[in-house]
Amino acid sequence: MRRIKTILSLVLAALILSTVLVSFSGCGEEADPNAPHEVAYTVYVSPDGSDDSKDGSKEAPFRTLERAKEYVQKLKKNKGDIIVEIADGFYELEDTLVFNEDDSGTEKCTIIYRAAEGAEPIISGGTLFDGEWQVAEDVDWLEDGLVAYKAPLERDDKLRAIYVNGVRAAMTERSATPLKAIGFYSITAGQADWAWISSGETTIRTGNVFDDTFGLSADTRNPQNIELETSSRWVTSTVCAESLQLTEEGDTRVNFQMPYAAIAQNLGWDTNYNPTALNSVVNVFEWLESEGQFYFDQAGSMLYYIPREGEDITKAEVVVPRLEKLIEISGSEPLKKYAQYITFEGLTFAHSDWNLYELEGSHGNATTQNCTIYTKYSDIYWHRDLYRAFDVAPAAIHVTTAHDIDFIDGGIELTGYLGIHLENDVYDCSIIGNYIAHTGGGGITVGHLQHMYENDTEEQRVSETSAGPDKEKFAYGTEAVPKNITIKNNYLLENCYFFPGNSPITTFFTYNLTVEHNFVYKCSYSGMSIGWGWCNFDGTEGSELPGQPTTTSRFNHVNYNRVEEICSILQDAGGIYTLGQQGNEDWSESTEMSYNYINCFRTPTRADGSRMVNGFHPDEGSAYILFDHNVVTNTIRNVYELNDWMRKHDCIVTNGYSNTDRSETTAPNCTLEQYVNADYIWPVDGYNVVLYSGLEDEYVHMVSKDVMPDDYYELAANVSITCGKELNRRGLLDADDVVWLAPEGTTEFVEGSNMTKAAGNEKTIVVPDDPGEYKLYIVYADGTVSGPGEFTVYAGENTSGVNLSDGIDYTVSKLKPLEIEIKDGFTATLNGEEIESGYTIDEIGEWELICTSEDGEEETLNFTTDVLIANQLLTDNVTVAPEGEISLTEGVAESGMVIWLAPSGLSAFDETDPTQSMAYGGSATIKAPVEEGVYILTVVDADGDILSQSDARVTVAAE
């Protein structure tokens, strides 16, 4: 795995402040001019070099990348490639490294900034901290042997992260619900360029009050550096404190930084900062209490830290982030003058900084969805302004007005917000083979949310009162949707630390985008977010701009990816989430999402709808997408969320595999073809999808063995296969290692009818001739033997007489009962009563099924069935007039629960919405919504968390 290397000597580290390499081959000797794309020049950079070098030769390398870049500008670009070879080391950038057309290559000359052979240089936006640590006697409240240390640090603003031995230290944090909100703040349209509309007199609050038991002292240090965060189901919003005051009652009043806190309170769909909801309060000195926490006392110029177990802070490498942006790649004139033909190979970019969005001295971060930032006080219904009040968050690497820019076999780590962003007028660029880990926000972002249309005119204005094209980020004649972008073989590990509403890979509007063979592991929300615009710009009568459908996102390819462990914090998501139309109406240039493996959680879960965690979540307006040969497991809601919510349509699922049949396919022109096995046992085609998903062979070295053990590559999933057939493997072991298929418990390995072997580097293994269940064992060349692998080969015909499994808890309802299928030649009893094939169960129960073959052999299965609360309340489909009463089963929902009748796909509810109605737990009836439509029942708890949703539909129609 690529990692940030620890510099052993701080003395040496101090000598390599800003580094970069450069020198030409043979000290300025030009290569054969008749050999295009041979290396014409090689420039060298080393931490031990000098920027006073004349030529950046191997013997006299430059010290910084900036100096190497300046030198490369002067070299001829028609003789072949120019290599800037960068030696191992830690390179502190003094400022953002900017590449424009003057720093570019040509069709005959690619400029390649490449790590030297065997080197792993780090290009850092931070500073190696060399302060002297001492025990912090003023932190005198610690227990259990913990000790805090402190060291002097001069800095003009707050600090949201430090990195100790390559690991991000955490700010202090506690959560509480404020006693109340206080004060009012008003905005008048036009009072500033960010004030697009006026606010109400009582809409915006200026602060809130926390109970004295919360422990937030009114006289704590640096109150202006305290952050307050609230969460919706799919995004978080943050404001900052201006000051703290002690109230007459002895509680603590927090006064918000304005005007950004006003903007943050003006968002729809409950995504706004809410001063009276549960608040996470961050960066308070007195809460320094756990290993790995830090606090920067800006006023006292002192850095505090509690070391982790086994960590000696006096010897640790500590990096303090400083630059918001490390690399800027941008031509000077969109659509005309480009940055081009530049490659970065084998370089790790790390330690960017971001202290939240700044507006007139106030700070915060708020948005309605994903990695966007709300920057204007504007219409709460963001679609009406065509998202012109929003921008994309800052990235450590930013690329715009550029083509043929490649980031190859490197890394992006420990960022303040986004990793890399390819924004506008970008084409023919690649991000391949990178280790992208522990980013503050998403790892890879492509495009911009304002790209519904290119080069907007007055035709792209919703109304006279909405924002017009003059508010566009990209002026007329400068806008182009990214096209021909390749994102491939990247490992995105634990992205979105600071901003959990991000996805590790986010693309807005793109043409011919390729996202293939990536591995996304452990994230807070969706694994990928593809597309934008919802249904609001589909050009239909109900859209914002009827007759003007957005067509800028199409012909995208999202294939062979592996996504696991999603939604650790938020929900209303999917392993792969989509928005908007992704092809043309005749299905030309449609989008494909195929051969992906989405395992929402590695721990088996039940698809009970209690959280909106889907495999694929085609959200509003998603259309013209083919989903073929995907394996999706351990969802909590649906495998495919293809309900009739907000004009999604024309999505086709073929050759799918899952452990649950829970999906919705009620959207127009949507079909589902899927193999289901509750025991995760796949036919060979499904097995191969899992096996070949994620990183290709030459890139798996980035993933640690605790995440992907050897056996995961050699037997990737449970598989049902004919005896004697060849089973595919990745063959990533050494030739002297031996892979065995043998019965579980085997300790001595001998080839035979129930045991087969293959060399470690072979790509297949033959399944034993004897029917049975087999595990994979690895006998390494040194004689050590792995335990049995996690997965099982089921060789031969399935001998079970029924379609059920032992120990499973099945979720059933009257509309979706459990149907028991009994094979010919078998008989069965259920709890002692004989049953026929086709028998169904639609009630809660504990069951013993005994299946007997013709020769008298018995198989006993014990299982349970459960009916979700929503399905107990509403058992059948109902048709009713607007506001008509619908009967509910009494005695099911507890009094603290709330019952909603609303469109499928909603996770936030509003009683004032004409498409929603509600009743309290214990009610015998619920009124239908005012508006005609098709609705489902959703039951939430007292905190608003979804408990379950009904299979039954309520059709509201006027008589």
Can you tell me about this structure?
The chain has 959 residues and is mainly beta. The protein has five domains: 17-124, no CATH class; 327-682; 711-795, Immunoglobulin-like (Sandwich), CATH 2.60.40; 809-866, no CATH class; 869-956, Immunoglobulin-like (Sandwich). Helices cover 4% and strands 35% of the residues. The protein contains six helices and 74 strands. Strands 4, 7, 25, 32, 35, 38, 41, 44, 46, 47, 49, 50, 51 and 52 form a 14-stranded parallel sheet that branches. Strands 1-2-3-6-24-31-34-37-40-43 form a ten-stranded mixed sheet. A nine-stranded parallel sheet has the order 5-23-30-33-36-39-42-45-48. It is globular and about 90 Å long. The termini are far apart. 50% of the residues are buried. This is Right handed beta helix domain-containing protein. Residues 1-25 form the signal peptide. Keywords: Signal.
